[in-house]
Design a protein that fits this description.
Shape: globular
Oligomer: single chain
Strand content: 5-15%
Number of helices: 10
Bound molecules: N-carbamoyl-L-aspartate
Strand order of the largest sheet: 7-6-5-8-9
Low-confidence stretches: none
CATH topology of the largest domain: Rossmann fold
Number of strands: 9
């Protein structure tokens, strides 16, 4: 059965738990890629920059015995004016079995899913969602904390432009965490209604007793104009560092989806310290993407 993975908002708790358990089985060496089935070709369509997400999808393909077919907007017919819809239809007739797509427009993955024959996995659509990053983060929290239910998770920084914040907010609250959005009011959407969680404009209040802190980069490429007066002032008020973390739970974990802007949203000592999970998140990204690919192609062996 074909399944798209477009947004955590629309994924039910059973599917989330199933994907996390598949990923863990791969990581623990309890599950191996079949290798006997048809060799699947997976289109990796990245119209926006990516390091971690792209490499880990490619790694996931290799580990599953699938063939990654790389495509980027630059150097393609899109730079000659071809529409996204026509590009997706072309991919369909190139006989790709699944598409992984990152695009600057919120909702682009949904458009792709309408026109493509196989499953589509959203690898980040504008400021909307980034489901596999949230799955990697959830897997990391489960490993470090043993649970998600009842944890207090503070998402700190540029929530407004962050697809990572949205996917994490949906996933973590579906699994019973208490989500807080922390940052200046210019970086927290004025209308948070419909999103689970509470808003804190004060860093200390937002970090008090937090079990998990997710740091976000200032995503300047998505800002129409300046939304913070200066990086310096932002850093003084909102940086996650040893001082600001004093009010958090003593065993708080500090997460970051990358790329980090060291010295701005978090300091070096925190980024390199024992509480930081940034490398675990990258590592787990491979396994959740293996799970997502298998699941979306219906090759996970489940009925
Ligand atoms: C994030 C993204 O692209 O949404 N990075 C990632 O995929 N790990 C976060 C960001 O760009 O700040």
């Amino acid at each position: 059965m074909k399944r798209n993975l477009l947004a955590l908002r629309h994924l039910d708790v059973d599917d989330i738990q199933y994907l996390l358990s598949l990923a863990q089985e791969y990581k623990d060496g309890l599950r191996f890629a079949g290798g006997n089935g048809p060799r699947r070709s997976i289109g990796l369509l990245f119209f926006e920059n990516s390091t971690r997400t792209r490499v880990s999808f490619e790694q996931a393909c290799h580990k599953l015995g699938y063939v990654p077919v790389n495509f980027s907007g630059d150097g393609s017919s899109m730079s000659k004016g071809e529409t996204l819809k026509d590009t997706i239809l072309t991919m369909r007739h190139e006989q790709l079995d699944a598409l992984v797509m990152r695009h600057r427009a919120s909702g682009a993955a949904f458009l792709a899913a309408e026109h493509f024959s196989g499953p589509v996995i959203n690898a980040g659509d504008g400021q909307h969602e980034h489901p596999t990053q949230a799955l990697a983060d959830a897997m990391t929290i489960l490993e470090r904390k043993g649970q998600i239910e009842d944890l207090t998770v503070a998402i700190v920084g540029d929530v407004r432009h962050s697809r990572v914040a949205r996917s994490n907010a949906w996933l973590l609250s579906k699994l019973g965490a208490h989500v807080r959005y922390v940052g200046p009011n210019t970086l927290i959407p004025s209308n948070m209604s419909g999103m689970p969680g509470t808003v804190h404009y004060d860093l200390k209040a937002g970090l008090t007793d937090a079990d998990v802190v997710i740091c976000l980069r200032l995503q300047r490429e998505r800002m129409a104009g300046p939304l913070v007066s200066s990086a310096n002032e932002y850093t003084k008020m909102y940086q996650v560092n040893r001082g600001s973390l004093r009010v958090a739970h003593p065993e708080v974990i500090v997460m970051h989806p990358g790329p980090m802007n060291r010295g701005i949203e978090l300091d070096d000592a925190t980024a390199d310290g024992p509480h930081c999970t940034v490398h675990d998140q990258v590592h787990n990204g491979i396994y959740v993407r293996m799970a997502a690919l298998e699941w979306s192609l219906g090759e996970d062996g489940a009925a």
